[in-house]
Design a protein that fits this description.
This is Cytochrome bo(3) ubiquinol oxidase subunit 4. The longest helix is centred in the last third of the chain and has 31 residues. The radius of gyration is 18 Å and the shape is flat. It is built from four helices and no strands. The chain is mainly α.
Length: 105
């Protein structure tokens, strides 16, 4: 292996374990909110949406190493694109589920 390949930052074990722990906690939060059923529909949807957004950002930053420091703006562009797609998917999913609910009742 060349020194060039070894000098690139691929993340540390600490960042991977931290990302895994945060992802598991966020998944359990969303699962717990749904299975307990003690919350209003709005609170459940808001909690699940926030957990999903935070989880995607955690995975992009800790696993895929997208940040605003390196690469002359390409990471920023990729992160902005990921955020736009994330907003479109979540907003579209909530809109579709709302309209399905209204048409089924």
């Amino acid at each position: 292996m060349s020194n060039e390949h070894q000098s690139t930052d691929h993340g540390s074990m600490k960042s991977y374990v931290t990302g895994l722990a945060i992802s598991i906690v966020l998944t359990l939060v969303a699962f717990g909110v749904v299975t307990l059923g003690n919350f209003s529909t709005t609170a459940m949807a808001l909690t699940i949406s926030i957990a999903a957004i935070v989880q995607v950002l955690v995975q992009l930053i800790l696993f895929m190493h997208l940040n605003v420091d390196d690469d002359g703006g390409w990471n920023v562009t990729s992160l902005a694109f990921a955020v736009v797609i994330l907003v479109l998917v979540i907003a579209g999913s909530l809109w579709i589920m709302h309209h399905l609910h209204m048409n089924m009742m």
